Amino acid sequence: MSAVLRVALVAGEASGDILGAGLMQALKLRHPQVEFIGVGGPRMQAQGLEPIFPMERLSVMGLVEVLGRLPELLSRRRDLTKTLIAAKPDVFIGIDAPDFNLGLELKLRQAGIKTVHYVSPSVWAWRQKRVLKIRDACDLMLTLFPFEAQFYDEHQVPVRFVGHPLADEIPLQADRHGAREALGLAHDAPVIALMPGSRGGEVGRLGALFLDAAERLRALRPGIQFVLPCASRERREQLEAMLADRDLALTLLDGRSHEALAACDAVLIASGTATLEALLYKRPMVVAYRVAPLTYSILKRLVKSPYISLPNLLAKRLLVPEMIQDAATAEALAQTVSPLLDGGEVQTEGFDQIHRSLRCDASKQAADAVLELVGRA
Q1: Which domain holds residue 267?
Q2: Fewest C-beta in 10 Å: which of 166, 206, 218, 362?
Q3: Are 346 and 367 within one domain?
Q4: 0.90 surpassed by pTM
Q5: Is 216 in the same domain as 187?
Q6: What protein family does this chain belong to (predicted)?
């Protein structure tokens, strides 16, 4: 193939940057003459993306929290729409960030550009009428999970379940001993990973709570060790301030979340992508989450799903405990995590089944689907 394939992509946060980089690598293997433009993080830039503006400008969460950034986000989307229409890519791929990307995809599709959305929004759980906008905006939806593809089939949206790249990357059985050696953790004491999130707002709401729970766990389990991977230098500084005047056997890590999960016996974790990683490492977990009170009040009325965490959504049952908003107290978290150190087999057996179902060579599947859409298969 001699014709250059021009691909535009937009990712809004670290998880999208990982997915985008894998997809870009797979596209290059199948169509070496390819150019990438758009918005992405360091992983996507390492694969050859020419960034139009920094990905961090799109990283915002919550209903109330986004309001302060709304004028900037709308302005950036207008400018990006004009830039991409002028660039005339063969295909645009919006990676997650649905509130930003779906509006962009609609304008680009109306301008004659093929559009793909990679990672389904939680349309099956709340704001289900968004499926009508998705049908108008996307030539193809790529889903990471099978229950999502079923939803889109039922609503006549072209869809392909590709599996999850993390399920391909993470081994079916992790090396706990090797991970503890690498992190300098003792082999003869239990280890709990604390994962309060990657964003400043998440750590602000959950960081001190998780540390309070850790202090109670230490009282229940003398000799216990804690490991806490920090998503960035800013998160590390934020957590170091919270650790002042606390006496915990806790190791802060710069990144290395996968090693922390491999090394630990159980996880106290914020709801989000990291719960899938904990599932794939077969580590029993307790999921906690807090958002701004007004955001929670709105979501409670809108969300139709009985669960918020990916492990439970994938299992279609309450496989892991979920402790949300006021229910997420330090004492409750400690009392729920502690028994997992003695068991957790029900969780881990369910995790193994889910892992195998998601192991589909996702980046290759996604690249093949994109190339088929643009007639370059």
Answers
A1: 176-358
A2: 218
A3: no
A4: no
A5: yes
A6: Belongs to the LpxB family.
